[in-house]
Write a structure and sequence with these properties.
By secondary structure, the protein is α+β, with helices and mostly antiparallel strands. The protein folds into two domains: about 10-115, SH3 type barrels, CATH 2.30.30; about 130-430, Fumarylacetoacetate hydrolase, domain 2 (Alpha-Beta Complex). It is about 20% helix and about 25% strand. It is built from eleven helices and 25 strands. The protein has helices spanning about 50-55, 65-70, 75-80, 80-95, 100-110, 135-145, 240-250, 300-305, 315-320, 340-350, 375-380, and strands at about 30-35, 40-45, 50, 110-115, 130, 160-165, 170, 175-180, 180-185, 195, 200, 205-210, 230-235, 240, 260-265, 270, 280, 305, 310-315, 325-335, 360, 390, 395, 405-415, 415-430. The protein is globular, with a radius of gyration of 22 Å.
C-alpha cells in the first residue's frame, strides 16, 4: 500500500478527523468489547470501534488474519508476527480511509459500534507482569523521604531496577478497587503490628509495555533487537498501599502492598503508531556512569524514548455530587524516564529469562523533574506531610473511599495528528469487613 502523508489521513468517519480526537486514522489502537455475551477484538476510530470479528466474517480481512481476528484476545494475532501486524493495520487503514470504495465502506459501517455504548474488556491475556523503577525523579524523591542521606542507591544508575508482580490481579479500566487490608507497622506504644485496612492507599502513573514476540529461555535479547519484541503500549495504574509497603518491603521488596490490584487501560497503541513521537533517551549528567554495553545502543539513545504526555486526575464523591470536572493532580512525560523500553527488555532477558506473548513490562511511576509532575501521592504529599487541597475544600494525603483516579495520555508532534492513549479509571471501594 502506498504511504500516505499526514495531510491525506482522512477517514470517512468525520469525528476521526477532528484534531481533538484520541483515535484518528493514524492511531488505530486495539481493544476488546462485549458482544452478545462474548468478547470480540476491535480497533478504535474516532468515537467508534470497528468489530474485527465481524470484519473477518464478512470477508473484509485477508484469509491469513481471519482466525486470529475471530479470537477473543489479541495473543494469537500478536504471535503471528510483524508481517501480520502490518497487514492488518494496512487493511483497516484502507477500510476506514476516505477513498475506500462504496461497497467495502458499507460493509465496514455495519461492523461499527459506538465506544460510548460499549463494554470494554482486557484485550490481552497477560502471562507475566514485571514492574520497573525507570524514573530517576521518582526514585530520588522517594529516597529523600526515607533515606535523606542517600536518596538514590548506588546501583540505580547502573541497572534497571524491577520486580515481578502479580498478573492475575491485573484488571480492566473501570473495575472498582477494594481497599486492601494488611499488616502495618506497630505504633510506638504497640508490640504487635496492626492488621487493618490501609490508611495510605495510593496510585502510580505508569506505561504498560506489551510484549508481542517471545524470546527463548536461556537466551538474551540484544538491545538492538529489543523493540522488535514490543507490540504496543497502554496506561497502567499500579495501586499501592504505602503503610503496608513500608512494613513488609524489607528484605525482599513489594508484595501484598501492590498485588491486590493493577488497572490497565482498554486500548493498546501499536508501536508503529508511535513512530512520529519517538524521543531521545533522557540526557544524563556527565558525571553519571555510562550504561554497560548490553544496555547501550546508538539508535536507542537517539530515539528510544517516547514523547507521551501523561496526566492524573481525581474525582471525589463530593466533586461528582456537585458536577465538578475531575481535578488535575499532575502531568509528566514518558520522555523523562531514565531507562528506555529497549533497555528494560535487554536487561530483563540478560540472564536468559524468556519473554512470552502478552507479557507486560511496566515502566514504574512516571515522574518528571518538577515536584508538581510527580506520578503518585507519596511524592506529591511528601508521604502525607503536605495535603493536596481540592476545589471542593477537601484535602487528600492519600486516597479516600469513593475517590476515582483517572489516567490519561497523549502524543503530539508537528505535522502529525495528535493521538490519545485513552483513559485508565478506577474507583476505591471500602475494605471488606467479612
Amino acid at each position: 500500500m502506498a504511504k500516505r502523508t499526514a495531510s491525506t489521513h482522512q477517514s470517512w468517519l468525520p469525528e476521526a478527523n477532528q484534531p481533538t480526537t484520541d483515535f484518528p486514522l493514524t492511531h488505530l489502537p486495539y481493544g476488546a468489547f462485549e458482544h452478545e455475551g462474548q468478547q470480540r477484538l476491535c480497533v478504535a476510530i474516532g468515537a467508534h470501534l470497528l468489530d474485527l470479528h465481524a470484519c473477518a466474517t464478512s470477508g473484509l480481512l485477508p484469509p491469513t488474519l481471519i482466525e486470529a481476528c475471530q479470537a477473543p484476545i489479541l495473543n494469537p494475532f500478536m504471535a503471528l508476527g510483524h508481517r501480520s501486524w502490518t497487514l492488518l493495520r494496512e487493511t483497516v487503514t484502507t477500510l476506514l480511509h476516505a477513498d475506500v470504495n462504496a461497497d467495502r465502506r458499507q460493509t465496514a459501517e455495519a461492523a461499527l459500534h459506538s465506544i460510548a455504548g460499549a463494554t470494554l474488556g482486557r484485550p490481552i491475556h497477560i502471562p507475566n507482569y514485571t514492574d520497573f523503577y525507570a524514573s530517576i525523579y521518582h526514585a530520588t524523591r522517594v529516597g529523600q523521604l526515607f533515606r535523606p542521606d542517600q536518596p538514590l542507591l548506588p546501583n540505580y544508575k547502573h541497572v534497571p531496577i524491577g520486580y515481578h508482580g502479580r498478573a492475575s490481579s491485573i484488571i480492566p479500566s473501570g473495575i472498582p478497587v477494594v481497599r486492601p487490608i494488611g499488616q502495618t507497622r506497630p505504633l510506638p506504644e504497640q508490640v504487635q503490628p496492626n492488621f487493618i485496612p490501609t490508611n495510605a492507599l495510593d496510585y502510580e502513573l505508569e506505561l504498560a509495555l506489551y510484549i508481542g514476540q517471545p524470546s527463548l529461555i536461556g537466551s538474551s535479547v540484544p538491545i538492538s533487537q529489543a523493540t522488535q519484541h514490543l507490540f504496543g503500549i497502554g496506561l497502567l495504574n499500579d495501586w499501592s498501599a504505602r503503610d503496608i509497603q513500608s512494613w513488609e518491603y524489607q528484605p525482599l521488596g513489594p508484595f501484598l502492598a501492590k498485588n491486590f490490584a493493577t488497572s490497565i487501560s482498554p486500548w493498546v497503541t501499536p508501536m508503529v503508531a508511535l513512530e512520529p513521537f519517538r524521543a531521545p533517551a533522557s540526557s544524563r549528567p556527565a558525571t553519571d556512569p555510562k550504561p554497560l554495553p548490553y544496555l547501550h545502543s546508538v539508535t536507542d539513545q537517539q530515539q528510544g524514548n517516547l514523547n507521551a504526555k501523561l496526566e492524573v486526575f481525581i474525582s471525589t464523591d463530593t466533586m461528582r455530587k456537585n458536577k465538578l470536572a475531575p481535578f488535575l493532580l499532575s502531568e509528566s512525560n514518558a520522555s523523562d524516564l531514565y531507562w528506555t523500553p529497549a533497555q528494560l527488555i535487554a536487561h530483563h532477558t540478560s540472564n536468559g529469562c524468556n519473554l512470552q506473548v502478552g507479557d507486560v513490562l511496566a515502566t514504574g511511576t512516571t515522574s518528571g523533574p518538577p515536584e508538581a509532575s510527580a506520578g503518585c501521592l507519596l511524592e506529591l504529599t511528601r508521604n502525607g506531610a503536605q495535603p493536596i487541597l481540592l476545589p471542593t475544600g477537601e484535602s487528600r494525603t492519600f486516597l479516600a473511599d469513593g475517590d476515582e483516579i483517572i489516567l490519561r495520555g497523549s502524543c503530539e508532534a508537528p505535522g502529525h495528528p495528535r493521538i490519545g492513549l485513552g483513559e485508565c479509571r478506577g474507583t476505591i471501594l471500602p475494605a471488606r469487613t467479612s
